[in-house]
Input
Amino acid sequence: MGSMHPVQVIAVTGGKGGVGKTNVSVNLALALADIGRRVMLLDADLGLANIDVLLGLSPKRTLADVISGECELRDVLLHGPGGIRIVPAASGTQAMVNLTPAQHAGLIQAFSDISENLDVLIVDTAAGIGDQVVSFVRAAQEVLVVVCDEPTSITDAYALIKLLNRDHGVTRFRVLANMALTPQEGRNLFAKLTKVTDRFLDVALQYVGAIPFDEAVRKAVQKQRPVFEAFPRAKASLAFRAVAQRVDGWPLPANPRGHLEFFVERLVQPAIGTHA
Output
C-alpha cells in the first residue's frame, strides 16, 4: 500500500466551540512548517469557513469532490502561508462512513498519493462531540485537546475524553491551554482536568503548554492572517513556536498504523461500540 513514510496525524479538538481550536490548528501548522516540516491541514470542521476565513482563502472544491471522483486531491488543495497545504473538508463529508467501495478506495488512494511528501497532517475537527468529530479523532495518531479558562471548557473536554476513551479505546491525550492569562493558569486548568480523569478514567494526559492571551491574535484575525505569520514576534507566536518544538519531539508511530492510508482506513470505518 502506497508509501511506508510515517506521517504524524494530529487531531485538534476541544469538546466545544470558543476555545480557539482553529486558531491553534492553523498556527501550529505554520510553526511546524517554520521548523522545516511538510504540513497539511485538513479542515474537518463542517461548520466550514473557519480556516478559509482565518487565511483569507476561498475553496472552489472540497474533499467531497474527491470522494465523488470529480477531481483529484491535488485539485482541492489550497496553498497557505509558509508552504502549508490545506484540504477543505466540506459538509458532504459526514457521509464518509457510507462510502461505496470504489469511493473508499479512491479516498485512500488520494491520501496515499500525497503522503510521500508529508510529515504532519493536522486535522481541525468541528466543535462538540458528534459522530463526525469522533470519527476524525479516533482515526488520528495524536489527540490535542484545547482548553481555556471558561466555565464549561473543562467539563466539555472531560466529556470528549470520556467518550473517546470508553467507546473508542483512546488512552492518550495531549492538552494545550489557550488564551491563558498566565503560565500558571494553563497549569491549573490541566490540573483541574487530570483531577477528574484520574478519578474516573484510565487515560494518560500530557500537558503540552499554554498559548498566552494576546491582542495580536485578534489583530491578525481582523487581517485574515494567522498570528504566527502576521506578528512572528508576538507572545502567542513565540508560544506556538515552543509548542511546535515539543510536538516535533512526539514519537512517530513505528508500526504501519502510522501511515496515512491507515488514518483514512480508520476514518471510514463505522464507529462501532469499541475500537481496537
About this structure: The first strand starts at residue 8 and ends at 13. DSSP finds twelve helices and eight strands in the chain. The mean pLDDT is 85. Residues 8-268 form a domain with the Rossmann fold fold (CATH 3.40.50.300).
